[in-house]
Write a structure and sequence with these properties.
- This is GP46-like surface antigen, putative.
- Keywords: Membrane, Transmembrane, Transmembrane helix.
- There is one protein chain.
- The chain has 2 domains: 6-41, no CATH class; 59-160, Alpha-Beta Horseshoe (Leucine-rich repeat, LRR (right-handed beta-alpha superhelix)), CATH 3.80.10.
- It is 20% helix and 18% strand.
- The chain contains 3 helices and 9 strands; from the N terminus they run E-E-H-H-H-E-E-E-E-E-E-E.
- The strands form 3 sheets. Strands 3-4-6-8 form a 4-stranded mixed sheet, with no helix packed on it. It has a 3-stranded parallel sheet with strand order 5-7-9, with no helix packed on it. A two-stranded antiparallel ribbon has the order 1-2.
- The termini are far apart.
Length: 164
Amino acid sequence: MSSLRRNPERRCFEDAYPPQQVYVTAAHILPIMIAVLTLLGFWPHHHHHYAHAASCGNCSRVFQELYDATRGAEWTSAWNVNDITSNPCGLTGIVCSGESVYSISLAGRGLVGTVPASLGQFVFLNAIDFSMNSLRGTLPHELSRLSVVDLVNFSFNALSGSFS
């Protein structure tokens, strides 16, 4: 039986805890990096305040216009009309950050009609996805106010115009 010898210089038990080599590969780091980058992607990047910005305090009017302009009652998963005024940030497909609308994702929900210009009031909007619906007409010029948007997807609709 060996006795433990304490090395005062290294402050460890040499016999009990022999040094080991640890190998860290990309396979170990990659999932962690993906998780961190994903979380950072959902963190609000801009915290400027604009007088014309629609906050969740007054966004119910904008959501009502969106609902009406796109035949909301006929969506495949329609919003509860009462929630538009009482809990707009709790609506399916809506994500808020603080008092601002951060993301609108209504892809493939059966929206029919036009994109309301009032959506341009959500100046803190980071993502908007209205893909795979039946929207028509032109994209409103007011959407150019969305200066912090990272994701814009209006694909698979009958829209014309550009987003700039």
